[in-house]
Amino acid sequence: MRSWSFDVKRLTLGEMTERSLSEIAGGASLEAADPTSARVRAVAEARSAEPGPLLEILHDVQNEFGHLPESTTPVVAEVLNLSRAEVHGVISFYSDFHTAPPAEVTVAICRGEACQAVGAEALADYAKSRLGVDVGAHAKDGSVGLEQIFCFGNCALGPTASVAGRLHGRVTAERLDALIDDAQAGGSSS
After folding, report:
1. How would you label 119-135 residue by residue, b for 16+ Cβ within 10 Å and e otherwise?
2. Is residue 154 a part of any domain in this protein?
3. d(CA 185, CA 190)
4. pLDDT (tens digit, 9 = 90+) per residue, 55-67?
């Protein structure tokens, strides 16, 4: 009869949770398999010594990728020694953070009081109808998204809209049509 023996090290629960896959024989770090995670870690570590760096790190990551990749929460939490819940709470609280890639063309309508007074609500309703998406949503094909902003600081020229990153004042439904058509065609009219 054969006898089998195994070399097993018993770990406490604390030791198991502190060890990453890369420390276990045969394991590989998350960054080795995922270059996005490695880049998120590099961005986070570059600011980790600053006081209260979480918001700045999230902005930096979003600026680099156009959104916050899935690995952002666990990687940033680890780098800053925060819980994933704390990082997720900040990401989900601020509407400026996006966890999905942006649309090819983003239309943002100012919903501030000054713009509301000169027709921004009607413009937003028109944009929803024209684009076929609700505020805060993207078309299924990712071609266009509609967002609301509560003041671009362009109050004297309301209603104001941003189309494909360019700010426009005194926007009418007709002008919005032309701006969207131009942006979708790859143009840059003003």
Report:
1. bbeebbebbbeebebeb
2. yes
3. 14
4. 999 999 999 999 9
